[in-house]
Amino acid sequence: MSAAQRQEIYTPYTALIGHSGLDAAFNHVVQTVELMLGSEATRLQQQNDHLLQPVEIMGAQIADLRGQITNFNGQITVLRDDRTKLQTQVERLQEKNTSHLKKMVSMAAVKHGATRRTHLAKGRETRAQVWQDCKARVMVDNLPPPCQELPDVVISSKEHIETLVKRTFTTDKEMYGPATSCLQPIFSFLEGHFLMDTHAHRNPDGQPDLCVYRGQRSMLTISTFVELKVQPNLTDSDLGQCIDYLFAMQRYQPGRSVYVALLSNVMKNVVMTLRFSLNNNDSPGSTRGDSDYHPRITLTGELTLVEAIGMIVHYLRIDGYDAPKSPFSPELGALDSIIGSPTSSVVGVFQVPSGETRELMAVKVVPEETAGYRHEIDLLSPGPVHTPDWTDWTMRNTVPDLVWDKPDNFEFGIRPVGQPFRKRYMPTTRSMQGCMRDVLSALMWIHKHGIIHCDVRTDNIIIVPDPETPGLEITRAHAVLIGFDSAANAGKITHYAGGYICTPPKLLEHMAMQRRCQLEAEKRVSGRYTWDTGDDTFQHVQYVPAPADDTFQHVQYVPAPADDLHSFIVLLVQVQYPHSFHRFDSGGVQNPDSFEFSQLQLM
User: Does the keyword ATP-binding feature in the UniProt annotation (predicted)?
Assistant: First the structure.
């Protein structure tokens, strides 16, 4: 402050306190203000220092986090490298597995008419490989020409047949017309039959050259067929093609006893038959799956064309050797397709009769009313079992609806109509996991209502694709549990009627124990031996003496939810490791000394 400014401030007070007193007062005030400002500055500096300490700490923490991020990035790089290596190994294993699977022919697939579809792309299993595999499985029997008289209708046409044999053909197509003209009168002599050249009509692809139909032109009514070849020798590919056609006939006509065909180049002729026999003379009334039947193929060669035609005509006169009449009610209308052939029944696809939309249903028909048929109707009919959880959409999608029933013809219709349980309909891991969860949900639902399915296997599961998913490009699908004809009430003693592969562990253990008792008894002179182990594990199982070839029909047990869950685990193993079940003869489960019995016990 300048002297002039001080003088200007001091002047009013000079007269009052004098010059000396005013200077002292002013210096005191200045000192006081300076002291206050210094204290405030010190306080602000301390506060600033206090605020800067967390910033420094946060800076150190940020630097530490940056170091950790760098370490994590290094670990992620290592994990990515490991993932790449694992993906490479998985691809190699998949290629190896695919290579092995191509060498195998699943007889379950063969039973569904899929040894090799005629419309499969090149590169898949060839017809020659199918034939060679059938021989490797000891499925083929060669029979000598039969010693039987020719039918009169064949004798009357013998001259025409011999004229056909003497002709020369350069292509297969040249043979169809003359062969049809020659053979048509012979097969027309059989009641309700007629022969047709399929190449001269608009028939679905994949039918044989000359087909003998019964009543109408359809795969459901083919009694036999003639496959003509122009080459001088009949090859394995030709034989494999006939096997394809025979299995296709079996798929559409599951009720027949024998399927007959003729492979010919007019000079060399082979009559081929296909029949299926129950494993170990199983009871016809039991519920078994497709894998519980053994296909047998017979070949009769060294025949003239006259003898071969006579043999075919003789076969078609035998009951069960020609196409059966349609088992479905006429009111159902046109049959869309045959989708299943369980034991003693047929399953076809029709439109729902009372539906306003073109909705499809799967109709199952049985030849006579059985306990399994009535039980399945009772379970699927709307009633107390369905009502409690029927609002649960998850549960509703995993169990079929009964939409049509005709008791007087022993047939009923359910929906939805799905695809067989095949991995190609579950292309992704997520879709397969979802389908398996659906099966488990269905089991939980029926167990909640006191029902045990007793037959959880691939034959009794269908895959229903998402309606928005076209064709086989399936990305979303759900599974539906079907086949309740073997179901039983929980806690009530009954006979086991499910598939061999679904046999409950307690029945296997009981059968093993009975076998041990039998072996011990054979060692005793008296021939009778009672074995008491002190173990009450099998008190819930009762054994009724029975012939050795029909064990399951005489074993009584108490069904429990654990039985279905065990079958579900076997199903999981079968899906994940299909090669483990390659050539698994399920009929061997009846024999406690068999390999199949011991394998099923280990699961």
Answer: no
> pTM of this prediction?
0.56
Over the stretch 117-136, which tens digit does the pLDDT of each residue have? 333 333 346 888 888 888 88
Where residue 383 falls among pLDDT bands split at 50, 70, 90?
low
Give the end of a domain, one of 325, 354, 377.
325
Q: Of 268, 185, 273, give the one whose Cα is nearest residue 229.
A: 268
3-state SS class at 46: helix
Give a yes or no: residue 65 inside a domain. no
- Containing 376, the helix (H) or strand (E) segment is helix 371-380
Contact 350, 361 (CB under 8 A): yes
At 437, which CATH number? 1.10.510.10
pLDDT digit string, tens, across residues 505-557: 888 888 888 888 877 777 765 554 444 444 444 444 444 444 444 456 567 88
What single-letter DSSP state applies at residue 330? Answer: G
Q: Which residues are CB-contacts of 563 (< 8 A; sequence separation ≥ 6)?
A: 452, 454, 502, 504, 506
**Please, are residues 385 and 428 in contact by the beta-carbon 8 Å criterion?**
no
Question: How would you write 426-467 as a 3-class SS string?
Answer: CCCHHHHHHHHHHHHHHHHHHHHCCEECCCCCHHHEEEEECC
Residue 213 has which token pair?
């139909």
- d(CA 91, CA 197) in angstroms, rounded, equals 48
Q: Are residues 225 and 179 in the same domain?
A: yes
Residues 309 and 352 in one domain: no
Q: Which one has a higher pLDDT value, 292 or 348?
A: 348
Residue 347 · residue 363 · CB < 8 Å: yes
**CB 580, CB 573: distance < 8 Å:** yes
Please name which of 26, 304, 245 lies closest in space to residue 116, comparing C-alpha atoms.
Answer: 245
Domain that holds residue 565: 499-602
d(CA 480, CA 398): 4
Q: CA 545, CA 547: separation in Å to the nearest integer? A: 7
* Domain boundary, last residue among 325, 354, 384: 325
Q: Are residues 385 and 522 in the same domain?
A: no
Classify residue 427 as exposed, middle or buried by CB count within 10 Å of its CB (0-12, 13-18, 19+).
middle
β-pair type (346-351, 360-365): antiparallel
